[in-house]
Design goal:
Helices cover 45% and strands 15% of the residues. It has helices at residues 5-29, 54-67, 95-100, 107-125, 131-151, 156-166, 174-183, 196-206, 242-245, 250-255, 294-304, 316-325, and strands at 49-50, 72-76, 86-87, 90-91, 188-195, 214-219, 221-223, 229-232, 261-266, 283-290, 307-310. The strands form 3 sheets. A 7-stranded mixed β-sheet has the order 1-11-10-9-2-5-6, with helices on both faces. Helix 7 packs parallel to helix 12 (316-325). It starts with a helix and ends with a helix.
Length: 326
């Protein structure tokens, strides 16, 4: 029917074009081949995982894997980092909240503590308040709360009993991380602006506090011979002076100075300074848990943390990384 050579050529070209288009559509429909380490890890593909610079994260993860367990140490905050924010829809208390919400303290204490919390907590979490101003505010808050505790005649035995009843739950997978690091003799520094006595007791209840590879830097209670609280030991630690306090723990950092690869985890921007006391850090990977004010704070967290986990109550990503490294 079509006798013209021109028409035949046009038809042939059309068939080739349609065939090429079909092949192109088929290839585009296939999943992109994963070639990077973090692309091959399912934990990095979840919607709550955010990274401003995935290439930087890839390089850091590669170097941590190359360094292996002999060069690694882990530094983590406790409240809202090692511990959960929510459990079964209910807010999990912080270390200070364990005491504040208990029947151990009188009502007049609770009223004063709530007033302080309502004043200072929004300022601590705000991305608009300068860090230097936050440091001053956190010293004010912490000192006032500690003075209130001392005035309430608290005893050491009561503190332990209160933790047992408090529901201070560790983040899902925290026990797995603690056991994994202990098995491979990797140091785990728990660096907290909370109360050391409470966080250690909470860890012991749900996991183990291994003294051979775990170390706690926190606000630790001081009791007299009768077991009554008389104050707190040493310098007040808060979210925004961790970079200063770390320099006051030279024995820990000297002991681990050869461990130049660090995974750091926190939930505030101040937690990023927890590794400042390390004399020689080669590769520092930071993981931030963003537990609230997501819309307002996400970009600020992404600008400073390598990895930001939004409303994630697990240690899945950290454990996946550790299993790659160890």
């Amino acid at each position: 029917m079509f006798k013209s050579p021109t028409i035949k050529i046009a038809l042939g070209a059309g068939v080739i074009t349609i065939g090429a288009l079909a092949v192109s559509m088929h290839l585009n429909g296939r999943k992109k081949k994963r070639t990077k380490i973090i692309e091959m890890m399912d934990e990095f593909q979840k919607a709550h995982v955010h990274m401003a610079d995935p290439d930087r994260v890839e390089e850091l993860v590669t170097q941590l894997i190359k360094g292996g367990k002999s060069k690694l140490q882990v530094i983590t905050d406790f409240d809202r980092t090692l511990s959960r924010t929510l459990y079964n829809g209910h807010e999990v208390p912080t270390c200070h909240g364990v005491l504040d919400d208990s029947s151990l303290l009188p009502e007049h204490y609770r009223e004063q503590a709530n007033q302080l919390r309502n004043t200072y907590l929004p300022l601590e979490m705000s991305t608009d308040v300068p860090i230097e101003e936050k440091r001053h505010l956190m010293v004010e808050w912490g000192t006032k709360v500690h003075d209130l505790y001392v005035a309430c005649n608290i005893y050491e035995s009561q503190v332990k009993e209160t933790v047992n009843k408090a529901g201070l739950y560790l983040r899902e997978g925290s026990n797995d991380m603690i056991e994994l690091l202990h098995r491979h003799a990797v140091p785990l520094l728990v660096f907290s602006a909370g109360i050391g006595d409470i966080l250690i007791e909470a860890i012991k209840l749900q996991s183990h506090f291994y003294e051979d590879n775990m170390h706690c830097v926190s606000n630790c209670m001081e009791f007299n011979e009768e077991g009554r609280l008389t104050g707190f030991k040493g310098e007040l630690i808060h979210s925004f002076n961790k970079h200063e306090v770390s320099t006051h723990q030279p024995e820990y950092f000297e002991r681990n100075k050869h461990r130049t690869n660090v995974i750091l985890m926190g939930d505030t921007l101040g937690d990023l300074r927890m590794a400042d006391g390390l004399p020689d850090t080669q590769h520092l990977l930071t993981i931030g848990f963003l537990n609230s004010n997501v819309e307002k704070s996400l970009e600020a967290y992404k600008a400073q943390y390598d990895i930001v986990l939004v409303l994630d109550e697990t240690m899945d990503l950290a454990n996946a990384l550790l299993n790659k490294i160890l």
